Sequence to fold (266 residues):
Amino acid sequence: MQATLPASRGVGVVADEIGRLGFEQRIALVQTAQARMRTLAAERSETLAFISHDLRAPLANAVDQLESAGGADARRLLPQLRRALGMAQSFLWLARAEALDTRQMRPLDLAFLLHQATDEVYAVAAQRQLQLRREIPDAVVWVVGDFEAIERSAINLLDNALRHAPAGSEVGIGVQRLPAEALRFWVDNEGAEPGAAQRARLFRRFSRGDGARSGAGAGLGLYFVRTVAERHGGAAGVDHAAGRIRFWVALPAAADPPPEAGGPNV
Fold:
């Protein structure tokens, strides 16, 4: 008695199923790799934050003790310790920026934030005989984001400008609306136009430029600014016109939020 074979589904159907299986397997592999990358990034940020915090505490304590003690040794060691402390703080801020979660971002008043950041550097500007020019509207300017991270970005840009602006000149800070429901805040000062090679590396990690925007830190200031901007769905860049160099951050604008919004994130 001859056995009855199941009806053939056709070569094309079988090929489609094999192709679909291969595609689903590739999708699964990509998803697994992406999840692994997210896990590694989170672990890296946690490790960086932990190390930075553990470094910062003893360095801050050593600075306090030397400032209290005074003397020739203190004057010699304090600049180095302050630099190390600043680097530890920069790494800590960067770890926080890389771990920003868009789900925890809230509506905030960008105009208020920029005024507050400018107030933070007022004493430094006065010490260096520099004027601060504000082009910030009186009206509320809403964005959705992390207050502390955006404020630190503005302070980083202001610090850079104050460090490199000629004595007796002015440093400007402002905000403007862009097409496609975007906002841009900027900081500018007198300065030479960066060359193409310098522009390409300005916002890279550990890049301290060729002097136009270099400092004594770890070379993370502008990289932090770019990271924060990108975490908010925006971008960071630099322009030059009429003898002034302008660093800017573009952020998506927000619709008017409820009245209770607008301050630092809680």
Summary: The first strand starts at residue 106 and ends at 109. Strands lie at 106-109, 131-135, 142-145, 170-178, 182-190, 235-241, 244-252. The longest helix spans residues 11-69. The domain at 103-252 is CATH 3.30.565.10 (Heat Shock Protein 90).
